[in-house]
Specification:
152 residues, mainly alpha, 0% strand, Tripartite tricarboxylate transporter TctB family protein, DUF1468
Length: 152
């Protein structure tokens, strides 16, 4: 097998695995119960997310993933920092509520990927406000608010 052919096949392995993982998550989601359109069950949103993963993975499996340059150490550092930020978000969420950890995570992620401070701050604030409006106000999801919420 030529080097280019092997590289092309390896660029399809991860998306294919992602597709399989998404399909497995979809099966588990259905097992949780889907409910109805007026009363969604606990598996509804995981199924929607799983479908997105399956579609994305299938598309990337068919079209291939091109990355001509090698992976640099800075890329690994960014991935580890992003994962660490996500872990910090999970730890802080029940302690201080959703807005603060979400703001910190978004700021860190945007700065890691080279956005300006101006765009980072504007995007982070708008994202946190949007999360609050969509999930807490419109969908009535009981997210932790923490000690910084009005009336706490």
């Amino acid at each position: 097998m030529t080097g280019a052919r092997a590289a092309g096949r390896s660029h399809r392995t991860v998306p294919a695995a992602l597709t399989a993982l998404g399909a497995l998550a979809a099966v588990v989601s259905v097992g949780l119960g889907l409910g109805s359109t007026t009363q969604p069950g606990p598996g509804t949103w995981p199924l929607v997310a799983s479908a997105g993963v399956v579609l994305s993975g299938a598309w990337l499996t068919v079209t291939g993933v091109e990355r001509p340059e090698g992976v640099a150490r800075t890329d690994l550092g960014r991935v580890l920092a992003a994962a660490g930020t996500l872990a910090l978000f999970v730890v802080l969420l029940p302690l201080v509520g959703m807005p603060v950890p979400a703001l910190v995570a978004i700021v860190v992620w945007l700065r890691l990927f080279g956005e300006s401070w101006r765009l980072t701050v504007i995007t982070a604030v708008l994202a946190v406000v949007s999360l609050q409006i969509v999930f807490v106000e419109l969908l009535a999801v009981p997210l932790p608010v923490g000690p910084l919420a009005p009336g706490s």
